[in-house]
Amino acid sequence: DIQLTQSPSSLSASVGDRVTITCRASETIYTYLNWYQQKPGEAPKLLIYAASSLHSGVPSRFSGSGSGTDFTLTISSLQPEDFATYYCQQSYYTPLFSFGPGTSVDVK
Amino acid sequence: QITLKESGPTLVKPTQSLTLTCSFSGFSISNSGEGVGWIRQPPGKALEWLAVVYWDNDKRYSPSLGTRLAITKDTSKNQVVLTMTNMHPVDTATYYCAHSPYDGYTKYFDYWGQGTLVAVSS
Question: 3-state DSSP call for residue B78?
């Protein structure tokens, strides 16, 4: 089975910071990589699909890049509402969908 | 506007089966490209994908749970049902259903239900 790893597992940042989260796949998944944001007590929300496409309604400070095995989620200027856990997910290999372990972004 | 809502028991006993229903609006799962999936999250842990069904009745299951899972769709009721057999305490989690479109290239979960917490305990 394909494995997704995320780094870092957690990070502390301040409002206005540029934040970068990395997701690495154990095998190539081309651009079949999605990113989600989850706040405590809430359902996840789709941010980015197909590695770099911004989901409708998601602020433009979020961006995704990468292909093959290495992917990045970037928040250009962290806002108070962005403190959350972020998950990557692949949709190429069996299992059809699998999630990374998550990256928690908290207040510095 | 797409909305989804999960319903089912909040408590099941070990070895029993769990049946969860996802009721949705804003799309028809009989239309090409439409699908609904199930994802769960144990308290304090990461998301785990369980199963998905598409408009053409293509069904996929997590290999680690596959023999315990069954997913069905009822097009007339706008519902998708997930059944999980032989429940264990480790299956205690919040269970989410989510809309999964196929845009001709990739699949993802773009709209989610609020989730339902299921505890497994005697």
Answer: coil
pLDDT digits (tens, 9 = 90+) for A42-72: 999 999 999 999 999 999 999 999 999 999 9
Query: Across the interface, which of A43, A49, A95 has its CB nearest the CB of B112?
Result: A43
Report the alpha-carbon angle B61-B103-A88, nearest 5: 60
* A97, B37 Cβ separation under 8 angstroms: yes
Distance from the A92 Cα atom to the nearest Cα atom in chain B, whole angstroms: 8
On the question of a cis peptide bond just before residue A95, with omega within 30 degrees of 0, the verdict is yes
For residue A108, pLDDT over 80 is answered with yes
Residue in A with minimal Cα distance to B40: A43
Task: Express each pLDDT in B4-31 by its tens digit.
Answer: 999 999 999 999 999 999 999 999 999 9
Residue A43 to residue B115, Cβ atoms within 8 A: yes
d(CA B13, CA B27): 34
Pairing relation of β-strands B11-12 and B116-120? Answer: parallel
Q: Which two tokens stand for residue B87?
A: 């429940």
Amino acid at site B106: T
Distance from CA of B115 to the nearest CA of A (A): 7
Are B100 and B35 spatial neighbours (Cβ–Cβ below 8 Å)?
yes
